[in-house]
């Protein structure tokens, strides 16, 4: 059972979110005392794909059946809608009404393009940018540009990501500068097979919305694919990697770019790097508590560090840990095999509590509204 403490925390979280969400449909969507909405992609035991929304207390808001497996989710800043983005190399993304799970639109990628699993919406609410692959020149990274017309999206163009195999795209706090994690791996249409492992070109790119390149940085290992990111309110970028090299090698699986500094390895102990099994999935930053959390599902480990000092706050076993999202007092973590958990991070000793959410079959990302 969820404890009284967790219920109180959920109510407090709901109040915080309510105070921030007062525009447009959000005043109807959220009501006082509701806990945050957790958005994710999830499968059932028969392999069917769903776009789901649950409250922290375990209440299901919706579970919408979709044809293709989704990956990350991004919500509109003003309207109670979100885009569930197709997992690479999917060709369908789904615009969902967050009040009832109604499918508003299926967005199909343009010919010779497929989605890479991530997107962002501009703070003005009119423009959406999605990472995509040019399959005529496999791996050439693009941001597909889409415009909201009411509660529908229209494709209007594309710009290069100045790299190969773009995975996640995010905003710096100015809301105008895009950050792109170019994974550096070439893949063909309808394939997850890597074509260029010995000629990978991973990079972290800062660029303007018109496509102008501002900076492009790499880590020390060419086979270290930059994949997922979290951005702190001060502009610090934290990135999780997936290493494609030999199993005996050690790799910089967590990296950081502080404002005005170079993109470089975060100070992670060798023992922890080995425990990650060369694979990280989801990264989240807690701004108020100045913490960074990371899931490593292949190693069945969940980590939390102090963002400023690099001190380890948590190194815990968690079977097939998947998505992680920051909430008022800590982090919520989902799992592909086991229970979802809430980690209270307010004290020196972090406390984990199971949540009354369905166990298992969650995708590697969790978006908190």
Tell me what you see in this structure:
The chain is mostly beta strands. Helix content is 7%, strand content 47%. It has three helices and 28 strands. The protein has helices at 4-20, 26-29, 270-275; strands spanning 37-43, 49-55, 60-66, 70-75, 81-86, 92-97, 103-108, 113-121, 127-134, 140-149, 152-164, 166-171, 177-182, 203-208, 213-217, 224-231, 237-243, 254-257, 264-265, 283-286, 291-296, 301-306, 312-317, 321-327, 330-335, 341-344, 351-354, 367-368. The strands form seven sheets. It has a four-stranded antiparallel beta sheet with strand order 3-2-1-28, with no helix packed on it. Strands 4-5-6-7 form a four-stranded antiparallel beta sheet, with no helix packed on it. A four-stranded antiparallel beta sheet has the order 8-9-10-11, with no helix packed on it.
Keywords:
369 residues, 47% strand, Methylamine Dehydrogenase, Chain H, mainly beta, disordered N terminus, four-stranded antiparallel beta sheet, single chain, globular
């Amino acid at each position: 059972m969820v404890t009284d403490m967790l219920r109180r925390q959920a109510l407090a979280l709901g109040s915080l979110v309510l105070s921030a969400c007062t525009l447009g449909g959000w005043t109807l969507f959220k009501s006082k005392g509701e806990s945050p909405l957790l958005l994710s992609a999830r499968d059932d035991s028969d392999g069917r794909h769903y776009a789901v929304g649950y409250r922290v207390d375990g209440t299901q808001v919706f579970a919408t059946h979709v044809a293709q497996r989704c990956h990350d989710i991004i919500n509109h800043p003003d309207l109670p809608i979100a885009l569930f983005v197709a997992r690479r190399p999917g060709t369908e993304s789904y615009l969902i009404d967050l009040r009832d799970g109604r499918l508003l639109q299926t967005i199909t990628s343009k010919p010779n393009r497929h989605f890479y699993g991530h997107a962002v919406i501009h703070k003005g609410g009119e423009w959406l940018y999605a990472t995509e692959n040019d399959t005529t020149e496999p791996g050439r990274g693009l941001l597909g540009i889409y415009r909201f017309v009411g509660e529908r999206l229209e494709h209007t163009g594309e710009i290069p990501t100045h790299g190969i195999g773009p995975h996640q795209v995010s905003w710096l706090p100015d809301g105008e500068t895009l950050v792109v994690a170019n994974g550096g791996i070439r893949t063909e249409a309808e394939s997850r097979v890597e074509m260029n492992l010995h000629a990978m070109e991973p990079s972290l790119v800062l660029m303007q919305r018109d496509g102008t390149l501002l900076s492009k940085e790499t880590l020390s290992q060419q086979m270290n694919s930059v994949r997922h990111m979290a951005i702190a309110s001060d502009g610090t970028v934290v990135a999780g990697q997936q290493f494609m090299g030999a199993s005996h090698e050690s790799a910089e699986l967590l990296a950081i770019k502080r404002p005005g500094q170079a993109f470089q390895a975060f100070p992670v102990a060798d023992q922890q790097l080995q425990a990650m099994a060369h694979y990280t999935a989801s990264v989240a930053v807690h701004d108020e508590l100045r913490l960074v959390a990371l899931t490593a599902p292949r190693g069945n480990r969940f980590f939390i560090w102090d963002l400023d000092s690099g001190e380890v706050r948590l190194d815990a076993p968690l079977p097939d840990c998947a998505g992680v999202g920051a909430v008022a007092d800590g982090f919520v973590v989902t799992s592909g095999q086991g229970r979802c958990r809430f980690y209270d991070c307010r004290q020196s000793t972090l406390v984990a509590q199971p949540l009354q959410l369905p166990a298992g079959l969650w995708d590697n990302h969790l978006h908190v509204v």
